[in-house]
Specification:
The protein has three helices and four strands. By secondary structure, it is an alpha+beta fold. It has a single domain, classed as 3-Layer(aba) Sandwich (Rossmann fold). The termini are far apart.
Length: about 160
């Protein structure tokens, strides 16, 4: 008698688990992952007391999250890699001028074919006492400039 009951109980459990998964585990269409993934984020530039690699990565992630890709023509997955090429600050007469250059590549996730090579450049000016904040502002603006090119490449 227990042998007949066991298969019926297993079927009920399996059906219950599948129903629960479909109800609570299904991902809504809006929550699908972005078609652009973040690849390598690199920099050789360093600053004492500042996590520049972390700040650079955060700036890239923030800008990628801000992109609106709903009307993009290309639906296949892409990978963005970014590099902080230059971050120079010149201080003179109580003022600080910062120049930042960011390089990025956009490639297909499958196969790695290069889609675009992008560059973002920005300058910022502030008082010499605000040089670290000035550098971060220039970094964020250069990243924003490079990411803007991603949208152009995807829509082409």
């Amino acid at each position: 008698m227990s042998r007949r009951w066991l298969p019926r109980a297993c079927k009920s459990i399996v059906i219950g688990l599948i129903g629960s998964w479909l109800t609570f585990g299904a991902v809504p269409a809006d929550a699908r992952s972005q078609p652009i993934a973040l690849g390598e984020v690199t920099t050789r530039v360093t600053r004492d007391g500042v996590d520049l690699p972390g700040a650079f990565r955060d700036a890239v992630v923030t800008e990628l999250e801000r992109m609106d890709l709903h009307d993009a023509k290309k639906q296949e997955r892409m990978v963005v890699s970014a590099s902080l090429v230059r971050l120079d600050t010149e201080t003179r007469e109580g003022r600080a001028w910062t120049t930042c250059v960011v390089s990025a590549t956009l490639r297909k996730a499958r196969g790695g074919a290069l889609v675009a090579v992008l560059q973002g450049k920005a300058r910022a000016e502030d008082s010499a006492s605000q040089a670290p904040a000035n550098e971060l502002a220039a970094l964020r603006a250069a990243v924003r400039s490079a990411v803007r090119g991603i949208l152009t490449a995807i829509r082409a």
